[in-house]
Amino acid sequence: MRMRHPPSVVFLVFLLALTAAGCRDGDATGAAALVAAQSPAEPTVPLPNKAGSFKFGVLGDFGTGDKPQYELADQMTTLHQRFKYELVVLVGDNLYGSERPQDFAMKFELPYKPLLDGGVKFYASLGNHDAREQRSYKLFNMDGKLYYTFSPKPNVRLFALESTYPTPEQIRWVDTELKASTSDWKIVFFHHPLYSSGDRHGSDLRLREALEPLFLKYNVSVVLTGHDHFYERVKPQKGIVYFVVGSGGQLRKGNIDRESGITAKGFDTDLAFMAAEIAGDEMYFNAISRTGQTIDSGVITRRKATP
After folding, report:
1. What is the chain's alpha carbon radius of gyration, rounded to the nearest angstrom?
2. What is the pTM of this model?
3. d(CA 292, CA 223)
4. By three-state DSSP, how is residue 129 classified?
5. Which residue from 120, 187, 242, 291 has the least number of CB within 10 angstroms?
6. Residue-wise over 245-277: b if at least 16 C-beta within 10 A, else e?
């Protein structure tokens, strides 16, 4: 009797042939087709790259001075050549180990030199590994403050917090500043995540209790954090989208708890940074790995105040 191969085997042979063809051609066409065949329900959402939009990057837990950090920094430079983001928000743990002038050079100034030379500004928040004196380091643009706010575009306001020591004074400041802002987009960034599926750290419930009511009350749309050494986009929590981007130089492989139930997309096998673009009521985002793969993408619609 003539044997018939089951459909799954035929499909596997087809994929292998497709990949081999791509390798023979000397480009990534075969690999891209394989990815598309494996996940047709999750096509990459490109950044629109519109004139006049607000373009920015997100990076966290990066300052090691090691080769992988430099390789991810190269991907950030490559993206900037075609997508001119104007600033990068840093979600903490900016330098690991000593913080001498030569350390700032090796762990920050050298890997991101092409971006700094290109006019990209970095706005830092502090993590638990960071000396508080970093607030006076000129290239972190903190102006000597542990927490601060600024508006890069008329319709966007960013709030940098210091989450290691969330003093009552700071919480009152957050309340006051969020309330005073009339910007369409309110985006908060700091180190310790309110929501995370990390086995090592996970969600900071104490911080969530203090901050989440304010984020809800004053219409925050997006929260950017680090601390857990991977990339995670959390399923919207009460209408707010939370990201963990703690994969800029340190990596904790396999650390995402896939049973947490809150992960919309997780990536814990390599380093990654995030690029985003706000155009009108929408924020487009791409998460890009050390090897240049777009490992997550999508569009967020800003929260709007209910009458």
Report:
1. 20
2. 0.86
3. 24
4. coil
5. 291
6. bbbbbbbbeebbbeebebbebbbbbbbbbbbbb
